[in-house]
Amino acid sequence: MLSLLRFALVILAASLAAPALAADQDWQKVGQALGKEGTAQPGGVYRVALPRSDLKVMLDGVALKPGFALGGWVAFEPMGKQAMVMGDLVLTQDEVNPVMRKFEEQGIEITAVHNHLLRAEPMTLYMHIVGHGDPVTLASALHAGLSLSKTPLGQPSAQQPAAAPSDLDTAAIDQAMGRKGKDNGGIYQFSIPRAQETKDEGMVVPEPMGSAIAINFQPTGSGKAAITGDFVLTASEVNPVIKALAANGIEITALHSHMLDEQPRLFFMHFWANDDAQKLAKGLRAALDKIAIKQS
């Protein structure tokens, strides 16, 4: 009862206070404590990308780009002078337990550990986390845990080479998907919010904190693409989406939760295929038609 009362008081303070963390200089302190700077997102969220550019991962003969399937991240949402942090961290098998132990010591909660893909070599695992409190303290705790992995921190030491031009017909993919994607370093991406808000412990979980459907296309040549990502589903949507994907040659590779206290209860379905990009886009659209998504 006392913990619920304390949390209610935090929410009340957040609703009455101005977004004190919205200023760039406040987020700069968070970036410094974490060891890597991020960017401000809609809704006052501060998101830091943590791609595993150090890993060379292969799946069915495809070299996975970091922004395609190895793109870890953490995101901070203001709660008055406090913050909630959520994240999805990409770890190797030997990194999982040292990072987990350090997070637990530092007050960062683990909400899920699991695979997203099958047959990838080396195998990668994905750790989802949540924390509440002073944002700089949270960032320092995250840094302490991430330092026990080889996750690249700091700013890139040299300018990254430009991504090779894509041979994908993105206009045709957009038409098949029924919405417009965007290029991100040679990966064609869609972020599709659900129609209903997601909340965690009473706080709205906005799109930049992992509540949206994510779909990525990585060109593999001759108009083909590998696809992966995750559908965000209610219980009643899970099996209709499985059937729609399977009917279109898209493999389901994982089904699980990412959060512990979300409302409504949500399931995250990961997928994989490497085929004609327009064909796959039509299959993904068939699955999207089974989901209550926000209309574009």
Overall description:
- There is one protein chain.
- The strands form four sheets. Strands 1-2-5-6-8-7 form a six-stranded antiparallel β-sheet. It has a six-stranded antiparallel β-sheet with strand order 9-10-13-14-17-15.
- It has helices at residues 2-16, 24-34, 66-69, 93-106, 135-146, 170-177, 235-247, 277-288; strands spanning 39-40, 46-51, 58-59, 62-63, 71-79, 82-92, 109-114, 124-133, 182-184, 187-192, 199-200, 203-204, 213-221, 224-233, 251-256, 262-263, 267-276.
- Residues 1-25 have low confidence and may be disordered.
- Helix 4 packs antiparallel against helix 5 (135-146) and helix 6 runs parallel beside helix 8 (277-288).
- 30% of the residues lie in helices and 33% in strands.
- A hairpin with a 5-residue loop joins strand 1 (39-40) and strand 2.
- It is globular and about 45 Å long.
- The longest helix is centred in the N-terminal third of the chain and has 15 residues, at 2-16.
- The N and C termini lie far apart (41 Å).
- The chain has 296 residues and is α+β, with helices and mostly antiparallel strands.
- The protein has eight helices and 17 strands.
